[in-house]
Structure formats: C-alpha cells, structure tokens
Amino acid sequence: xxxxxxxxxxxxxxxxxxxxxxxxxxxxxxxxxxxxxxxxxxxxxxxxxxxxxxxxxxxxxxxxxxxxxxxxxxxxxxxxxxxxxxxxxxxxxxxxxxxxxxxxxxxxxxxxxxxxxxxxxxxxxxxxxxxxxxxxxxxxxxxxxxxxxxxxxxxxxxxxxxxxxxxxxxxxxxxxxxxxxxxxxxxxxxxxxxxxxxxxxxxxxxxxxxxxxxxxxxxxxxxxxxxxxxxxxxxxxxxxxxxxxxxxxxxxxxxxxxxxxxxxxxxxxxxxxxxxxxxxxxxxxxxxxxxxxxxxxxxxxxxxxxxxxxxxxxxxxxxxxxxxxxxxxxxxxxxxxxxxxxxxxxxxxxxxxxxxxxxxxxxxxxxxxxxxxxxxxxxxxxxxxxxxxxxxxxxx
Length: 396
Ligand SMILES: Cc1ncc(COP(=O)(O)O)c(C=O)c1O
Prior knowledge:
2 domains, Aspartate Aminotransferase, domain 2
C-alpha cells in the first residue's frame, strides 16, 4: 500500500513500539541500541521516568492557554536558562528552525531599533544547516535544499569557515550579524576551532555585528557543557536551542542578551504553541537532570571513553574508518565506505547511527549512556565494519 505521507523522507523499514533508556524495541520485541537519539533529541534516552512524570502530571492539569496569559512553567524555565547562560531573555518556540527564525529577526530588529534598518544581512558558513523554513534554508545556503522553492530569501551571505579574508571582504555596511554552529552537525560534525570562534567574536565587536550561535544540535549538554560555545570562552549575543532541550517533546528556544533583543517589543514576534505548559514542564524536567551536580562531567567522561574506544576501532579497520571527530557525545566517524551503506549495516547489527554530510556517520547517544552500552555499540560498529572488510577482500 502506498503511504499517505508526503514522501519527503527515505525511511528505514523499521518501526518502534516503545523505548527504554538507550534502547528502542520493535513490536516483535527486537531491541536496537539507539546512538542517534532522534538526531540528538532524546537527550535523556527514551521514557526517562522524571520526564514521563513531569509530562503526565502536567497533562492532567492544563495543556494550553495561549501566550495571552502568564505561564508559570515558562517563567521558571526562562529564569533557569538565563541563570545558566550568557542570556538575559528567552523566547520559546517549537523547533530549531523557529528558534533560528527568531534569532534572525532579533538580529535585524536590533539594528533597526538602533536607527540602521539597512543592516539586515547575515553571514553564515559553508556546510551550515539552520533548518527548513525559507529563511533558514537561505541561511544554510545549500543549493540542493533551496532549488525549486522560488527566489532565495534575501539577506544571507556565505563564506568558508576559517577563511577570514573572505569574511572581512563580505562584511559591509548592510551586515547585521554572523551566525554559526560551534560544531556543524548535518555538515559532518565539523568542530569550529575555539581560536576561530574567538576571532569571530572580535570581528563582530570591531564591526558592531551580533554573534548568533546555533546550538540546536550542540546544546543542552551534548558536548559535556550546557552549551558547546562555553568550551571556547566566547559568548554569543543570540543563541538558538532545540532538540535536547525538550528531551523528545517539541521545544525550541532563542536566548539573547537584553541589549541584542532591544527591538523586540510587544507584537514584534509570536507563536501559538511556543512555551505551552506541556513543553515547559518537560523542559524544566530536562534541566533538573542536566543541571544536577556531576551530570555534565559524566557526559564529558562518557564522550572521552567512547572516543578512545572508537580510536581503537579505527586502528582495527583503517579501510572503513578514516577519522573520528567531535566533542563529548557528539561524535562523527568519517568513513572510507559510503555512509548510508554503513548506517544500514550498523542497523543490521541492531545499532542506530545517523548519516551526515562529508561521508560521516554521527554517534549521538542519549547523554545518560553507560559504559556497558558504549561497549555494546562499539562491538556492533566492529561487526558492521567487518562486513565491509569482506567486500573489500573479495574485490581485491
Ligand atoms: C544546527 C541545527 N540548526 C537547526 C536545525 C533545525 O531544527 P528543526 O528540524 O527542529 O527545525 C537543525 C536540525 O537538524 C540543526 O542541526
């Protein structure tokens, strides 16, 4: 039977009936180790009791009131995020793309409020991914996603990360901001060196630009810090977050300094569902766990352990694995074999990994992953890699 769903995804022939921590279980009872976590979404794994408790408790009280009324859970989550970051104010929405739309609007309005509405252009970096709305597609700059959808949204310029001459050349009197992922996720787990992030901050300060960090994939503990930019010592003016912040419940956030958000007065932005009581309850519950003493250190430790074991695996299969990239539990394996074939082989070994650009597979396990699960994942990667060694042997 043909599916009634718009065929915009190539879906694996697999459906899951339930999840438990790092495991997904099919209706037939087959267990898969989930090292994708819904593309870095299920930060605390599946069916985490604290999140289930918070959501069901809230579901029994109130789901939705609109943003025309106070939402105490949102006030609390906003305050906690402000206290834990560079930011002074938070806007809640429902997805990463929406968080980036808010970031773009805040940056443009900042200049308009300062008497410079002509400063609206945003510089982004090759390999970026910022979402699938028309503006965030233009920001990401990937032709294959933009084509066929009419004129590209105006106001985005792109340069290669690390090409500071090109960056200085593209910055002009209309430039409002730079926008960057501290580690490019979809682009292939490409870590932007801390020195480069510091230089971007200096360039922003020198030209009166705002620095926007897209931490939709890197944020909320993924790299072993609450937000990945913290490793570099650089603070943005505006930051988007989503994915892990809701632990699997749709939630996005745009954080900013009060100064950067100076133009955002009543009526300048909005969303029907953003910041609804259900999302706020889950967001607070995620923070309860992620901000608990020692949690982020354990993430960093698990990341190091996984990276070490992957290094040994690369030595065992140099014809399959070329390089290991990433920070914390956002790791990428650069492959010498096609990444989609490898992801399918890993799936056959009951391990879920996520392909990305630059022939990478991403390992994005729940942040709660334990050593036994790390070992099980590495064994399954080993089994998947052996399949390719066989193919290579036969071909030679
Ligand atoms: C860095 C980054 N920004 C933005 C997005 C878009 O998020 P969403 O799919 O929730 O709109 C993604 C999604 O993969 C992402 O990785």
